[in-house]
Amino acid sequence: MQPIKIAIIGTGNCASSLIQGIEYYRGKSKEESVGLLHWKINGYAPGDIVISAAFDIDRRKVGKDVHEAIFQPPNCTVKFAETMPPANVSVSMGAILDGCADHMKNYDEKYTFVPSDHPEPDKKKVIGILKDSGTEIVLNYLPVGSEKATRFYAECALEAGVALINNIPVFIAGDPQWAEKFKRSNIPIIGDDIKSQMGATIIHRALANLFAKRGVKIDNTYQLNTGGNTDFLNMMDKNRLSSKKQSKTEAVKSVMGEQPDDRKIHIGPSDYVPWLNDNKVAFIRMEGRIFGNVPMNLELRLSVEDSPNSAGAAIDCIRLCKLALDRNIGGVLAAPSAFYCKRPPVQYTDDAAFSMIENFISNGRFN
Question: What is the pTM (predicted TM-score) of this model?
Answer without folding.
Answer: 0.94
